[in-house]
Design brief:
Layout: E1 4-14, H1 17-25, H2 30-33, E2 37-44, E3 54-60, E4 66-77, E5 81-88, E6 90-101, E7 104-115, H3 118-149, E8 153-161
Antiparallel strand pairs: 1-7, 1-8, 2-3, 3-4, 4-5, 5-6, 6-7
């Protein structure tokens, strides 16, 4: 049986909503500013809004293992939401939500996936806190990298299980 993870991360960045949204929605550039994003390749093109686009991601956090998956974009609402379906080492959904209030862009990333790598499922009952910590560290690297790239102040980063 696959281990299931339901995590939500919140970034608060003192930057314009459009700048944050544009950086997130152009994922081919993530390896430039996001330390954990080892490699991003476009696999397929969708419509003009990006729905149907598919990207192959290779991630590596502080704990030395890679997670590789393809994310196909399933929904886009510019400056509001980007959602995709993952398949590979993990299977499930990832959803970015964006809002802006009082000069701060608030980004919520929801990650609901089943782990499909056998060794990760084998150790998941004991290593769940470690996997959650590693996910948070990767997300923290992304928040710091994005804030640095935008020359913006990172106000907060939080990750929790849903």
């Amino acid at each position: 049986m696959a281990a299931e993870f339901k995590l939500i991360t919140e970034w608060r960045i003192r930057a314009p909503l459009a700048d944050v949204y544009n950086a997130i929605s152009h994922c081919l550039d993530w390896p430039v500013w996001w330390q954990g994003a080892s490699k991003v390749e476009k696999c397929a093109s969708g419509d003009a809004d990006g729905v149907g686009d598919a990207y192959r991601f290779s991630w590596r956090g502080p704990i030395p293992y890679r997670v590789i998956f393809v994310m196909q974009v399933t929904r886009v609402v510019p400056c509001v939401l980007v959602e995709g379906c993952a398949s590979g080492d993990v299977a499930g959904i990832g959803r970015w939500n964006f809002v802006h209030a009082h000069g701060v862009t608030i980004v919520h990333y929801e990650w609901r996936v089943d782990i499909l790598r056998w060794w990760m499922n084998f150790v998941a009952p004991f290593a769940r806190p470690v996997f959650r910590w590693n996910h948070h560290q990767v997300m923290l690297q992304g928040a710091k990298g994005l804030a640095h790239m935008l020359n913006a102040r990172l106000e907060a980063v939080h990750t929790r299980e849903m």
